[in-house]
Design goal:
Layout: H1 4-7, E1 9-14, E2 17-31, E3 34-39, E4 43-48, E5 62-68, E6 71-77, H2 78-81, E7 94-102, E8 105-113, E9 115-123, E10 127-128, E11 142-148, E12 151-156, H3 158-161, H4 164-175
Parallel strand pairs: 3-12, 6-8
Antiparallel strand pairs: 1-2, 2-3, 2-9, 4-7, 5-6, 7-8, 10-11, 11-12
């Protein structure tokens, strides 16, 4: 994912002079009672949760695939991707359809979230670096910690969270037959 300050730049006017303020827009959402956010430039749409079709031999974080206007879209369970038990599907559960860079192309992926909250503007000055410890999420998945309404929101680095190569490697490790000791 790109640097926060390069995502979107807006100009704020004060009095007669204008100054440039680096701001970025993020979609905030809840996952297991915690607030997360992703940059809106990666978001294509938000759809109602529908049961994905299962795909054999996928890692636990891949719930399956959906048909999105004729395209096969993998659906990732972020809770499972973070090493936590999957969140139960509720009334507000939805799938956020995102587009992530994969080399020179883009991959469309759906991510399951408990509830979408709102789109917020976060100034670059209100984004802190990821914590070095104590997060329930791998530090390399965190782009930063954004201050929104006096509270921290975890800004996710989608390219790392949704690294399909890493998930495929994980799936291969867990589906290869185990060698028996002494054979």
């Amino acid at each position: 994912m790109t640097n926060v300050s390069s995502i979107q730049t807006s100009t704020a006017a004060r009095g007669s002079s204008a100054r440039v303020v680096d701001t970025a827009q993020f979609l905030t959402f809840q996952l297991a009672g915690e607030m997360f956010a992703i940059g809106i430039l990666a978001i294509k749409e938000i759809i109602e949760y529908g049961m994905p079709s299962m795909v054999p031999m996928m890692p636990p974080s891949v719930r399956g695939v959906i048909n999105l206007r004729g395209a096969v879209v993998p659906v990732i369970d972020l809770q499972a991707r973070f090493g936590q038990p999957s969140s139960p599907v509720g009334k507000r559960t939805c799938i956020v359809i995102v587009e992530i860079p994969m080399g020179s192309e883009y991959q469309v992926v759906g991510v399951v979230v408990d509830a979408v909250s709102e789109v917020v503007d976060i100034d670059a000055a209100d984004i802190e670096p990821p914590p070095s410890f104590g997060a329930r999420v791998r530090v390399d998945f965190i782009q930063g910690m954004g201050k929104v309404k006096g509270r921290f929101v975890i800004l996710l680095d989608l390219a790392r969270v949704l690294s399909l190569d890493e998930m495929e490697s994980f799936a291969q490790l867990h589906t290869e037959p185990l060698a028996l000791v002494g054979q």
